[in-house]
Amino acid sequence: MGTSFSAVKEDLTSNPRRPPPGSIPIRHHGALPIPAWKIQWSIRLAIKHNNQIQKNHFHKDWQRRVRVHFDQPGRKHRRREARIAKAAAVAPRPVDKLRPVVRCPTVKYNRRVRAGRGFTIAELKEAGIPKKLAPTVGISVDHRRTNYSKESLVANVARLQDYKARLILFPRKSGQFKKLDSSAEEVKAVKATVAEGKRDGIATRVEATFPITNTTAAEAVTEVKRDSLPKGEEAAYRRLRDARAEARYKGMREKRAKTKADDEAAAKK
């Protein structure tokens, strides 16, 4: 006896193990099939960071997208011309900004120092430079950086003060000198030098005028003779242990002495 079409249709729709429409059939043991959107979402979440895309069977015709640098001499020339044009446009100002001295992160590199992004608000305040004025006079500011040591604060404040001492600030309006502006003689001398096409005594790059240097291994390591070493303390460890014991048993000993004194006073009565 054959099975009718209605019975087959009912069996297909009522079977819970049959994958519903829009899902990918996956071999499983007693569990319902996983919908296709969930699989796509899980795959999308699995790819993290700047790693290689797995199983990337793409046909992108990469031969047409190979980047070549046949114009290297021309680019080099254009970059040089752009640097010269920028220096002429911003003259007599330098082409770069003053950057702080920061220590490189991680244990591997923290013995070195380099140029940071900008000075902190605390460093500017210590040097007496308003934070809104600093970017207008060639000082980079980074409000996110924090001073975690006094040494970095002192070093960058000294760097700012040295820059401030060498800075020649022109008035906004010609002839109207204000509090922070340089003297008329200094401004006149700089204008005369620039008019002649010279840059004598005028910094074109702040990086070269205020260099950031690291100590070499030869400078960092010095020879010390045994005779020049200071004489160590006698029985230092024993004294440390005695001091710890004294602090530990101080209350107990005071209580014992007080009890003894009270007993002696009671015996005399």
Automatic annotation (TrEMBL):
Q: Which Gene3D superfamilies match?
A: 1.20.5.110
Q: One MF term in GO for this entry?
A: structural constituent of ribosome
Check the record and name the Pfam families matching this protein: Ribosomal_L13e
GO terms of biological process kind:
translation
| Transmembrane regions | none
Highest taxon listed in the record's lineage:
Eukaryota
Q: Which InterPro entries match?
A: Ribosomal_eL13 (IPR001380)
What ranges does the record give for the region Disordered, renumbered to this chain? 1-27, 247-269
Signal peptide extent: none
Q: Which GO terms describe its cellular component?
A: cytosolic large ribosomal subunit
Q: Which UniProt key words apply to this protein? A: Ribonucleoprotein, Ribosomal protein
Cite the HAMAP family for this sequence. Answer: Ribosomal_eL13
Q: Which PANTHER family did the record assign?
A: 60S RIBOSOMAL PROTEIN L13, LARGE RIBOSOMAL SUBUNIT PROTEIN EL13
Q: Which family does it belong to?
A: Belongs to the eukaryotic ribosomal protein eL13 family.
Q: What is this protein called?
A: 60S ribosomal protein L13
Organism name: Penicillium freii
